[in-house]
Amino acid sequence: MENNNQHKRYRWYLQFDEITWQASYADECPPFVNEENKEVWRRYLNKVIKNHLKEEVMKSPEFKDVEL
Questions:
Q1: What is the CA radius of gyration of the chain?
Q2: How far apart are CA 41 and CA 34, in angstroms?
Q3: What is the pLDDT of residue 28?
Q4: Cα angle vertex 27, ends 43, 51, to 5°?
Q5: In degrees rounded to 5, what are phi and psi of residue 56?
Q6: Which of 18, 35, 42, 62 is deepest in the core (most CB within 10 A)?
Q7: What would the mean pLDDT of 35-64 be, rounded to a whole number?
Q8: 3-class secondary structure for the chain?
């Protein structure tokens, strides 16, 4: 049997959807996020997330506070 040393890779994405179901698995946006600005918010938050999605962030107190 061949030894598979490849690591799994993961994707993340941010999406704003209209709430159409009573039950939801996502957090609801604040009221100021609306149809006109949801795409700008998505792009902005993607930029912020990319800035924080670094290995050294895992050593920060903020990360440790939410780590499982």
A1: 17
A2: 9
A3: 84
A4: 35
A5: -65, -25
A6: 42
A7: 92
A8: CCCCCCCCCCCCCCCCCCCCCCCCCCCCCCCCCCCCCHHHHHHHHHHHHHHHCCHHHHHCHHHHHHCC
What integer best gives the mean pLDDT of the chain? 83
Mean of pLDDT values over 31-57:
92
CA angle 51, 19, 25 (to 5 degrees): 60
d(CA 11, CA 52): 15
Task: From residue 32, give the alpha-carbon distance in Å to each of 18, 27, 66.
Answer: 14, 14, 26
